[in-house]
Amino acid sequence: MSSVAIARIDEYEKEKIKQILLEMTGKTAFPDVSDKTILIKPNILSDAPKEKAITTNPAVVEALIEIVKEKGARKILVGDSPGLHTPTFNAKASGIKDVIDRTGAIFEDFTRRNRQHTVYRKLKVPMAVALDEADVVISVAKFKTHQLMMQTGAVKNMFGLVPGLNKSPMHLKCPSVEEFAKLIISIFRESHTDYAVIDGIIGMEGAGPANGTPRKVGLLISSEDAFAADYSEAVIMGYERKDMPILNEAIKEGLTDIRTYSYPILNPDNLVIKDYKRIESRKRSLFSALILPYFSRIREKRKAQKRNAPTFQNNCVKCRRCIDICPAKALTMGDPHPEINLNACIRCYCCHEMCPVDAIKI
Ligand code: SF4
Ligand code: SF4
Q1: Each residue of 55-98: pLDDT tens digit?
Q2: Site residues for ligand 2, CB cut-off 6 Å
Q3: Which of 114, 165, 194, 324 is positioned for an S-S bond with 126, CB 3.0–4.6 A?
Q4: What residues does 106 pair with on adjacent strands?
Q5: Are residues 266 and 318 in the same domain?
C-alpha cells in the first residue's frame, strides 16, 4: 500500500510550500529523520536559472530542508551532479546553493566523493559516498518530460548520484529503452530512497528534460513510494501506462503495485492535463517486448537506432558539450554544427540534454 499526496499550489512562496508539504508528509509515510543524517537530492540537470524549469525550484528545496531540520535532523546533505560536471559546479545559478548556505545544510560534490557500486548487468558504477553516510534519502525531482524515458521523475532523478560523465557510457551498455529503464531502477534501488517529492508547480513540457518549455501545473506530489509519485506525474501529463518504461519494469520486478495506491488529497485521474506536450510514445512490437531480451547487445543497438536521431540546427554555438558527452563517439565538429555518424549513434539523447541553446532536435 502506497500513499501519494497531491496538492495544489500555484506559486513558489516558501512558507506556503512548507505548509502544504507538512500536510502532505502527514498524509504519507514520511520517514523518521530525528537525529539522523539526511541526503536531499534535487534535480540540477544543469545549473540553470530556476525560470527555465530545468531544476527543482530552490523554494521547494528550502521548504523541505526546514521541515527536516524542525523534525530534528542532525545533518543535512544536498547535492547532484550534472552530466557535464565542471570543477566549478556549485548549484549557484539554480539558486540551490544560496538555499544550502542560508539553511546550514552541506553541499555535496558527487565527483569528489564516490565509490563503486555493482548494478544491473554487473556494471560497476561510481555513486556518491553521501549515500553511505545518509540514514534517510529524499528525492526532490522536477515535473518534466524526458526524451528517452518519457518523464523525469523521482526515480530517474537518482541517476544524478552517478557523477558527471560517468553517466553517459551507461547508455552504451544499455541502449534499448527497456534495458536503460532496468539500469535506472537498479541505480535507484542502490540509492535506498525513502521519500519522494516532485516539484510540479511549474513543470516542463515538450522537449524535456533540458530543452522543453516551462508550463504551469500548480501541483506538488509526494510519496514514500517514488514509483507511485512518478505514476501520478505521468497520469497528470496524460501518458498511458504502456508509455512508462521505468514503471512497467518496476511492476514486472514486483517493486510497486498500482492497485494499492491511495490518494489522501487529490486523485491524479482527476488532474489530467489533456494538452500537455508529451514525448511521442515509441511503438513497441511483440518482437521488441518478448523476443528481444534473448538477443545480443548488437540487436539492442539496432533497435535503438530505429528511434529518431538527433538533428543539428544552425544556431549551434560550437561549445562541444554534445561531443564531449556522446557515449558512442558519434559526433565530430563540423560547420556550422556537429556532424553525426548515424551508424554509431545509439539515440540516447544525452547530446540533446546538454545543448545550452536548443540547437539539437529529436
Ligand atoms: S549523438 Fe547524441 S543521441 Fe547519438 S549517441 Fe551521441 S549523445 Fe546519444
Ligand atoms: S549542438 Fe549544442 S551542444 Fe553541440 S556544439 Fe552546438 S551548441 Fe554545443
Answers
A1: 999 999 999 999 999 999 999 999 999 988 888 899 999 999 99
A2: 312, 316-322, 337-338, 354-355, 357, 359-360
A3: 114
A4: 77
A5: no
